[in-house]
Structures are given as structure tokens and as C-alpha cells.
Design a protein that fits this description.
15% strand, TIM Barrel
Length: 208
């Protein structure tokens, strides 16, 4: 078992107890996790913590997928992973309709489809084996909508390939947990008491 701590959400003013995090790092804690809703973002605190620590991993729990394109998230992850010598973990989530449509101003859509497409695109970018193309329900690369210029073309990241970056997803529904087991490296078992792990594990195993 590895231990981690939550940095959590900020209120009106951002507060990061870096001394607490450094103490956890000195005691051998494995990871610290940042969060976002509709105020502070999860990435900036993660970068702040990574810059002031040496060993502890830092992950996002979670980055809201509808708020960023898959390419933007992949670029962020690869950048932070390089700068931190491999200590960044991507944590993704679909969020909910209230935040997605009320805050980000985009359609909630199909969360499981979005998760599959998002991670597929990110992994293609991480691998850097060929210019990235994807035509799906949520994402079109290159963009093929009627309002586009038609000038888009498949591209490779300018950063070096990095397939070491882990992608975790947040899920609580049976289908969500199954999707996590299918396409992610890990899942955040929110509100799961350890003695009742069987409530969630069956769906994860089905996905695996």
C-alpha cells in the first residue's frame, strides 16, 4: 500500500501547505493530489508543488476533460513530467452537467465516449509514433466541421515521446468504473470504504 495526501480545493484564496507536503515527502508518502471545480485549477497548484519538492509524485484529482482539449492536457502532462523528472500523474474526470454546461459552456455529451476518445488521443500524443488523427463523437483531429478552414493537418508533439505518464480516471457508476478498468492506468474509488471494496471492484474487473 502506498500513501498519498489531498491538497484539495481552494476557496476564495489559494492555500497550499507546502511544509505539510514536504513533511509527507520526507516520511515516504507516494503522492499528493490537487483538484478543481469552478474556481482555482488543478494544474497550477500541481506545478507549484512539483517545483518545491524532489521525490513525491503529484497528480490531478481531477482535471475536467470538457474544460481542455485532449492535446492541451497531453501537452501539459508531458511538460510537467519533463520538468519534474517523471513525477506527474494525470487524473481525469468527466465532471457533471452543471459544471460542464454552466461553467465551461460546452455540451456534457457522452462521458464514457469522451473518456475513451480523450485517453486514446492523449496516448497517441505521448507515443509520438505518427501525426495524430482522430475522428470521433466528441473530438475531430484534424477538425472537419463545416465552420473550419480546412487547413488543419495531423501533427506530432514537438516534445520527446513519453509513454511513462500514468492516466487515472474518476468514476463512481458501474459503467464509469468499467470504462476506467478498460482504458485507464488507475481509478479514483471515491467514497469507497476499504472494507467494502467489492462494491466497486467487480465493475473494474469487468473493464479489465
Amino acid at each position: 500500500m502506498k500513501l498519498g495526501i489531498l491538497n484539495g480545493l481552494g476557496g476564495k484564496n489559494i492555500s497550499i501547505d507546502i511544509e505539510r507536503i514536504k513533511a509527507a515527502e520526507s516520511m515516504g508518502y507516494d503522492s499528493v493530489w490537487t483538484a478543481e471545480a469552478y474556481g482555482s485549477d488543478a494544474v497550477t497548484p500541481a506545478a507549484w508543488i512539483l517545483s518545491q519538492t524532489d521525490k513525491i509524485k503529484v497528480g490531478t484529482a481531477i482535471m475536467q476533460m470538457p474544460g481542455r482539449s485532449p492535446a492541451c492536457t497531453a501537452s501539459t502532462a508531458m511538460t510537467l513530467n519533463q520538468l519534474s523528472n517523471g513525477r506527474f500523474i494525470v487524473g481525469l474526470g468527466a465532471s457533471g452537467p452543471q459544471v460542464v454546461e454552466g461553467w465551461h459552456g460546452v455540451a456534457y455529451g457522452k462521458p464514457m465516449t469522451r473518456t475513451r476518445e480523450y485517453i486514446d488521443i492523449m496516448r497517441k500524443i505521448f507515443a509520438r509514433e505518427e501525426p495524430v488523427s482522430h475522428q470521433g463523437f466528441h473530438y475531430s483531429m484534424p477538425y472537419q466541421g463545416e465552420d473550419g478552414t480546412g487547413l488543419g493537418k495531423p501533427l506530432k508533439s514537438m516534445l520527446a515521446a513519453d509513454t511513462s505518464i500514468k492516466i487515472y480516471t474518476a468514476a463512481i457508476t458501474p459503467k464509469g468504473l468499467e470504462t476506467s478498468g478498460e482504458v485507464a492506468d488507475g481509478v479514483f474509488p471515491i467514497w469507497m470504504p476499504p472494507e467494502k471494496s467489492d462494491v466497486l471492484v467487480g465493475s473494474i474487473q469487468k473493464g479489465l
